[in-house]
Amino acid sequence: MSAPTAARSARPASNIVGRRPLGASPGGRVLLHAFLILVAAIWLVPIVAAFYSSFRFFETDTNINGVFSLPEALTLENYRDAWRVGSIGNHFLKTAYIVVPSLFFILLFASMVAFAATRYSWRFNIAFLVLFTAGNLMPQQVIFQPLFQIYKRIPLPDILSDTDTGTLLGTKIGVILIHVAFQTGFCTFVLSNYMKTIPKELGEASAVDGASVPRQFFQVILPLSRPAIAALAVLEFTWLYNDFFWGAVLLNQGAERPITSSIAILNGQYASNYNLIAAASIMIALPTLIVYLVLQRQFISGLTLGANKG
Fold this sequence. Notes:
The chain is mainly alpha-helical.
């Protein structure tokens, strides 16, 4: 090879090697870190403000000295009053009665649909999967009025009803059903994409060994899909727990509403104690924070699975 040819062939390689990724230079790294710190600070301002307000006296610190004044002393009375007046403990139980069954059935049904749509080839499996996914594109508020009328006309035995209406309206079962109906489509979409990465040979090998379809699903596919299911469990728990709309419109009794809908009890008729509401908000947000911290590793691994090929 001649010298000019070697120089021309080496020039692109040197240019490629000389390139630096974004943020590799010292100046770019400083700007990137400054931007991330700024965004994190802006994101934390409401949380820090609510946490700070929850320890202040409403009469002296907020009304007289102003919202941004330094308090003379801090107090835990707002947390005690919010727990007592807002019946936080009782509403935690009411929320658990809705969130836990909803989360269980959502993940179970979504994994079953994803298993059928990805592990077996049949004529309408793609259309079936698109049908489940398309349900997420409809705003929930659009079907509120017809759903309200349907629930009002569906009888429910007294043994299953927690109200005296005798219908599905105003019961926690109705809220569970609508959560399962809306959230199953999203979870099916995520799990189907994940199950496509599982080799079909595993199912074929288990079938050769005599495993039935339910056994393949529960003992082969579900254990391998645990990271994706854990990530979905964290997301779905947060969405179900933070739901305000369906708990407010379908449960007509305030004592039966979930925790996010019951915070309206703390609002007065003519004035509101925002320090009390801040303390209640902090307590209400704790379960989602605890669930994320417990399942943090599974959540992050579930989000990053499939990011790299190979």
